[in-house]
Amino acid sequence: MNNGRKSRFLFTATCFGIAFLYVPMILLIFYSFNKSRIVPVWGGFSTKWYGVLFESEEVWEAIALSLKIATVNASFAMILGTLAGLALVRFGRFKGRTLFSGMISAPLVMPEVITGLSLLLLFITLKEFVGWPDQRGFTTITIAHITFSMAYVAVIIQSRLTGMAQDLEEAAQDLGAKPLRVLIDITLPLLAPGMLAGWLLAFTLSLDDLIIASFVTGPGAVTLPILIYSRIRLGLRPDINALATIIILVVAIGVLVAAWVMFRQQKQRELELSMSEEA
Amino acid sequence: MSQSIDYNDRPWLDPEAEPFIKVQSVSKHFGDFTAVDSVDLEIYKGELFCLLGGSGCGKTTLLRMLAGFETPSSGSILIDGVNMTDVPPYERPVNMMFQSYALFPHMTVESNVGYGLRRDGIAKEEIRQRVEDMLAMVELTQFRKRKPHQLSGGQKQRVALARSLIKQPKMLLLDEPLAALDKRLRVQTQYELMNIQDKLGVTFVVVTHDQEEAMTLSTRIAVMDLGRFQQIGTPTEIYEFPSSRLVATFIGNANMFEGRVTENGIDHVIVESKDPACSFYIDHGMSIAEGSKVWVALRPEKIQVSKQPPGDSNFNCIKGMVNDIGYLGGTSTYRVLIGDDRIVEITSPNLSRPKDGNPPIDWDEEIYLSWEASNPVVLTK
Amino acid sequence: MSDPAASSTQSRLLHRLSHLLQRNWRSLVLFIPFFWLLLFFLAPFFIVLKISLAETIIASPPFTPMIEWVDEGIMHIRVVIDNYAYLWEDDLYAKTYLNSIKISSISTILCLLIGYPMAYAIVRSSHTTKHILLMLVILPFWTSFLLRVYAWMGLLADQGTINNLLIAIGIIDEPLRMLYTPFAVYVGIVYTYVPFMILPLYANMEKIDWTLLEAAADLGAKPMTTFFTVTLPITLPGIIAGSLLVFIPATGEYVIPDLLGGGNVLMIGRVLYNEFNANIDWPVASAVAIALLLLLVLPMMLYQHMQAKQVEAE
């Protein structure tokens, strides 16, 4: 009946959607191997822009700074976000819960310009009254990133905890484990995959952030997005295409490996399940 | 003494026995909702006690208060003479088997079973030994290195049981212990549970919504509804002498007739019902005023059917027409139309094979229903 | 601190605090993130609010203090609402705000039109295909946002790939002006935000019992009728979630209007950024931030709060 037409429509829509998402990125990669300085005009194959990219000390420094910020940020955000998620899901009602849950979810809907502006003004005020931070850069960017990425971690942890039956924690208590023991023995190990996901998300958010970092950064602290932005504002640059290619490849390989590992785990589990049913 | 032997199986009858668990006017409110409404309960050592009721009747909340996961809004809970009302679950001498089994997915069978002992700081060697014994008892020794997701439903159930018994609790709480198993396995596991309980002598408190399960397992049953106990008694008492219409219809089937007491003798009571018109002669006296409104409950299997009117048709007899027959093999269920719209259900054993394929009683046949004077149960509520 | 009384109070306070934490680890779990958010999330807003009520001066910091100590300890509080009056009078701000809302609304609808069939197709496809498609949708999210915008600069430029292609096959003779127009901004927003629409829609559709559609068909509904009377209503929560995830950040967007819209597309995030960094007018920038907060973020948060309440009630 109509099924054929419907599925053909869905198929076409999906193909167009995927093409829409990927053609620009493929072209980005394609033109990184362009000899010509004018990006979208093909002038023959060349890898010289990769050389140009890595000759620049700036680029190396920016990559190092961004990775450093992202790592520290992800670790702090994971801890703080997990604590926040635990408090929100497992502590029932407490004083200031509405304020707390509001503050946790607000960064998710806050325009970056507002977060950036307000944090910069905070740092300036703090310096005026407390004398800290005396210089803006790594520390201020990291603090800013932790503040918004912990919200994302908290959301992941909250949804994990809500989905996780409270039975397991109660069973541990019933067998004689005090609440802190339950947290260490049961809750945290079960939350580990969620915490890992949160860490990765916080890491990526930090690597990707331009606006907040450019508000709260100081002299000399140039993150990778700030560097890229300062270059592409003035127009297309083949060395940025080279950089984009590298980033896309790294991410793609990472995602593929992760997918492969998950696929293997699932196969393993299915195998074990079928074994147990036979037993 | 011969008397004390009698009491061994029925400690609740012993006037001198001290109850092991005392629940004293315990209530639990969740906001405006009253889950448990001022209940009193005494459970004796070694009992297999069932809390039976539909969903939302408060049975699980009561169990969770015994385990310590919920604190009563009022009242107190004593276990072995110690007030446990505000004691947290990790300090109570009771353990619980969860409906979902709640096996820790990141631990092996062995570490799941040994978890409770490790929390008590018992020596490693002793833990190993006790875990081994326990696994042998539930016949899971060869699975001890497996993770829960590598086990079948029945195996998981046994791990959960082993884990909750290893601390030798004074009382084991079981929340719908058999609900997650399929029908065949459930029956088998029922008897296993009873054997283990018998062997260890631990007091079991079981929550269930399955009346058949409650009847098979328990020494006593408490029927719960709307946060209160409707009746507490042995399976036989509850089935044969229900105290209310609710209990009579919740446990098994019952045909219910509304009527008035017309005669109250020393050794008998007569109840007249209008719809259908019938006189019930009950062969024992009751302390009930003449003229008061009562209900008479009759179990389907306690009614006889015949094509001819029985000897004395003034009492305990009604005429009806077969409306529906359900053939179940061992028994048949007859739905008999009395008057215009009243249906009475009868279960009758198929004692002999039908001749020429014709059933002894056929559809639309006129038949007589009758019963012994000891069978009707008179209920006042 | 040199004041001995103050320092002893301080140490007593610290002692009591540590005692409290030892006794109750739950407080610790709660205290750390709570304190962090109070300091780095809530406090900044009060500073923004304060500065928005000050006057711009050429100094460092470039605004007047709110509290001044006039001689002999008389406290003088100076609050100016000029900045808000300025936002009201200069219709640039109102226009920019409305333009931002317009751009993000239209982009949200476009994302929905592209994302809905895709999410639907993903949910209804077979196990393996589903995972591959999902991964394809998520993957761009992990790559740099900035570079994805940059990719469109290369596509839309006067000498960009699209123009080159169109000229090569003879459809046009002169390059179309696409980069630095509102069109480029729409493309950029839709491109970067469409995964945010697909994922919540997918999460919502994944939970739906699809036999409902068969039931509707069985009861005589035509495919179109089924879609409007069954599919659309039950996927509405996903539509709302996805739309919010696109609409809110798109409204405050800075990078896309800056890189793809050039100076021609006014959006509120960009105005705020420029007011602060280029014009060094902190009080006005703060007033814009507060206005944006009240007009966009607060309604959204209230809506979310109400949604959460409703879910809890159910």
Tally of structural domains of chain B: 2
In the predicted model, the low-confidence regions of chain B spanning at least 5 consecutive residues are: none
Q: Which CATH class of the largest domain in chain B? A: Alpha Beta
Q: Largest contact between protein chains?
A: A-C, 84 and 86 residues
Notes on the protein architecture:
The complex is a heterotrimer of chains A (279), B (381) and C (314). The model of chain A has no long low-confidence stretch (mean pLDDT 89). Helices cover 80% and strands 0% of the residues of chain A. Chain A contains 11 helices and no strands. Chain A has a domain at 58-241: MetI-like (MetI-like fold). Chain B has 381 residues and is an alpha+beta fold. Chain B has 2 domains: 2-247, Rossmann fold, CATH 3.40.50; 255-379, OB fold (Dihydrolipoamide Acetyltransferase, E2P). Chain B has helices spanning 2-9, 59-67, 109-119, 124-137, 153-165, 183-200, 211-217, 235-240, 245-250; strands spanning 21-30, 33-43, 48-52, 74-79, 82-83, 94-97, 171-175, 203-208, 220-225, 228-233, 255-264, 269-273, 278-282, 293-298, 304-306, 317-327, 331-338, 342-349, 366-370, 377-379. In chain B, helix 6 links the parallel strand 7 (171-175) and strand 8 (203-208). Chain B is globular, with a radius of gyration of 25 Å. The longest helix of chain C has 34 residues, at 91-124. Chain C has helices at 4-23, 25-52, 82-89, 91-124, 127-142, 145-156, 161-168, 182-206, 211-218, 223-251, 255-260, 268-277, 282-313, and strands at 67-70, 74-77. In chain C, helix 4 packs across helix 8. The radius of gyration of chain C is 26 Å and the shape is globular. By secondary structure, chain C is mainly alpha-helical. At the A-C interface, helix 1, helix 3, helix 4, helix 5 and helix 6 of A face helix 2, helix 4, helix 5, helix 6 and helix 8 of C.
